[in-house]
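Structure (tokenized):
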């Protein structure tokens, strides 16, 4: 089923994002995670992907593993990075045969250590170009990424919303946000989108706060603000990881409750393939 249809029907719910495992042990852990979270009747599940070749194959393999879990709507992510038109065409054909109706279309980040990577030399330069190609290539429902604080490479929020509109006008059906920890950025994004005439569903992407050092590292490369009070509170618990995790989970519960109170009743969780944290949050908010 298309996610756009699911979102029309369900005004409340959760979705889960997983990443492809690299080892046999990782595969078993993913399966256990998916089985545990499937009980929560997610709107859909998505699978991230890396760039090209073997890494992309691992993503595809993980997508097929999830498809074996009946009743789960699975959306693979696809990136422009190193993607050749013919390979994408073949992959789409394969996905269609497997009954996949949804694709998350992304540009991808520059390869590690190559900050001046030239995306314009590739078959697809921006997510917008991939969306256009996917629309021509089949009857897929397409998700795209949006950025409450603006994408890290964009000069201004005005420019960011202009480019966001381009990929949505190219045919995106819904969007999922980058992680954020201050909900006011999400509410402002919705306001900017509304003013620009963008009316597709925008699911807030929730990264549970568990390890503050790791999240700080990640946040610094993707322009996400961590509120000072929670950073200090969790930082002061760094010698006691389980207390730090509990503190972070409490924060994420409050974040979700605020979103729900303000009308964002469909939440997308970056699960990091760890069910216990997500379950603790869902127990508190649903
Ligand atoms: P785009 O929308 O193409 O934007 C990239 C940059 O180009 C932005 O700075 C934008 O402002 C600018 N831009 C866009 N259009 C134009 C234009 N016409 N002219 C000039 N500049 C323009 N990465 C992965 O590798 N694998 C994943 O599975 C993955 N999943 C993700 C899931 C979510 C929910 C999110 C939020 C991100 C995910 N990412 C993933 C990360 C994403 O690939 C990076 O953030 C990437 O840097 C940008 O991708 P995009 O699709 O938003 O790119």
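Design, position by position:
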């Amino acid at each position: 089923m298309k996610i756009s249809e699911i979102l029309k029907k369900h005004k409340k719910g959760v979705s889960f994002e997983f990443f492809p495992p690299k080892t046999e042990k990782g595969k078993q852990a993913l399966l256990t995670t998916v089985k545990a979270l499937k009980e929560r009747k997610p709107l859909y599940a998505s699978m991230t992907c890396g760039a090209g070749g073997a890494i992309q194959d691992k993503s595809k393999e993980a997508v097929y593993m999830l498809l074996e879990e009946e009743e789960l709507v699975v959306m693979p992510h696809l990136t422009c990075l190193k993607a050749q038109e013919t390979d994408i065409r073949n992959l789409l054909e394969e996905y269609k045969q497997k009954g996949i109706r949804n694709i998350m279309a992304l540009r991808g980040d520059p390869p590690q250590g190559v900050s001046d990577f030239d995306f314009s030399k590739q078959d697809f330069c921006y997510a917008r170009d991939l969306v256009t190609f996917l629309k021509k290539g089949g009857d897929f429902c397409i998700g795209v990424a949006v950025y409450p604080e603006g994408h890290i490479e964009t000069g201004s929020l005005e420019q960011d919303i202009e480019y966001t509109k381009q990929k949505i006008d190219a045919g995106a059906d819904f969007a999922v946000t980058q992680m954020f920890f201050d909900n006011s950025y999400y509410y402002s994004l919705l306001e900017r989108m509304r003013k620009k005439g963008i009316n597709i569903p925008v699911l807030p992407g929730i990264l549970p706060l568990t390890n503050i050092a790791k999240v700080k590292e990640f946040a610094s490369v993707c322009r996400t603000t961590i509120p000072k009070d929670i950073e200090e509170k969790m930082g002061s618990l760094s010698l006691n990881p389980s207390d730090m995790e509990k503190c972070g989970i409490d924060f994420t519960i409050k974040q979700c409750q605020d979103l729900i109170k303000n009308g964002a009743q469909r939440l997308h969780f970056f699960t990091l393939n760890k069910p216990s944290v997500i379950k603790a949050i869902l127990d508190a908010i649903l």
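Reviewer-requested clarification: The chain has a mean pLDDT of 95. The chain has eleven helices and nine strands.
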